[in-house]
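Regression test attached.
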Amino acid sequence: MAGFSGDETAPFFGFLGAAAALVFSCMGAAYGTAKSGVGVASMGVMRPELVMKSIVPVVMAGVLGIYGLIIAVIISTGINPKAKSYYLFDGYAHLSSGLACGLAGLSAGMAIGIVGDAGVRIRFRNMCHPTSTPWRDLALQFLSLLRRDLP
Amino acid sequence: MSTATSSSWGTALVNISPYTFSAIGIAVSIGVSVLGAAWGIYITGSSLIGAAIKAPRITSKNLISVIFCEAVAIYGVIVAIILQTKLESVPSSQIYAAESLRAGYAIFASGLIVGFANLVCGLCVGIIGSSCALSDAQNSSLFVKILVIEIFGSALGLFGVIVGIIMSAQATWPTKV
């Protein structure tokens, strides 16, 4: 125990922070992947050629898992009471950072899932009856932020 | 070092043996992973069998979805075996030493990570595998495309295993004096 400085229970909170970072981000990634994947499969039955283009929400959701992995590894390698004193302050800081990353990933994943599912189904409907001009509308919106006189 | 015992959290945690935490971590790592795999297989399997009534050609290809779900359970078994080799016996004077406590917490968190990451991975792969079977029954060119989505899903279990193994390297017990 020579050189083991800091509070005894602080690693509990630190390791739980790393766990929260990864588990909640993976929950968000799983939700996003599953929900948008089901939408892509449903749309692909009608239009198989659109499936590969519609994989974007799945990739975005997968990236959330990687964010959680990075934060979990950073936290877990930062808990080293032999090299650097690890007080309750550090433990709580790690817990909150893990929760922040994880819960943000969870909400982002749920949003990606719902939007991706709706988006691929609307894409299919738009391919059948093209009525909207998404790029032009987006450009007009940005321009209207720059120039107040545009509608 | 006993400033932690001034708070109620600290007093409660310091008096729980690290072997309790380790055992719970190991149990969660395998138990919850197997729950995720089973859930995924049941979601995939029921859709697969139902769709195969009208399209029997899909059965052999779509067993891949079941294998992806099974892989999640195997990750849980591997990490549980690794974690239980990290357990060492320490003399009873040192069970509640700071280093032993940290080792117990590391194994606990590692087991939690692997178990719950595999749970959500199994669910995700199961749901996508079910839609893969159903869309393959309609149009066999869709199978490979939906399988790409399933591979993204199964990467989540791997993330859990990686972090679990990295964290289990922190589980160092005090050497016998």
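Expected vs. actual: identical. Residues 25-127 of chain A form one domain.
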